[in-house]
Design goal:
Strand order of the largest sheet: 1-2-4-3
Largest sheet: 4 strands, mixed
Protein name: DUF2249 domain-containing protein
Shape: globular
CATH architecture of the largest domain: 2-Layer Sandwich
Organism: Haloferax gibbonsii (strain ATCC 33959 / DSM 4427 / JCM 8863 / NBRC 102184 / NCIMB 2188 / Ma 2.38)
Strand content: 15-25%
CATH class of the largest domain: Alpha Beta
Number of helices: 2
CATH topology of the largest domain: Translation Initiation Factor IF3
Number of domains: 2
CATH superfamily of the largest domain: TusA-like domain
Mean pLDDT: 81
Helix content: 10-25%
Structural class: alpha+beta
Pfam family, one: DUF2249
Radius of gyration: 16 Å
Order of helices and strands: EHEHEE
Length: about 120
Amino acid sequence: MSHTPNAFGRKTGGDGTNTFGVNFLLRRPHDTGMEHEAYLDGLDAPSERAVSFLDVRELPPPEPLTETMNRLAALDGETVFVQLNDREPKFLYPKLDDRGFAYCSAEREDGVVTAIWDP
């Protein structure tokens, strides 16, 4: 993260405040206890590719969408991106359609799993 002033003249990153100077709690992702590849079981997603995993269940909106889109920008054609969310990511689907990604979602015991890949 950058520690230089943003458009609002505030420094961002590292100090637990966002762009608007509001304090927030930095959290660690859940330890799901599952191998990330196991989230692909039962989904119509390529299983022979590497898996990039992101647990966004504790992130407040719009961070799950923002973080997912940032990670997808660096996704190569040989990797399936797997997002674990506490709800269906309805605002993500149109963005994936616009960018030509293939995806599928399924509700699981610990959240909604969405697999995203370059077809």
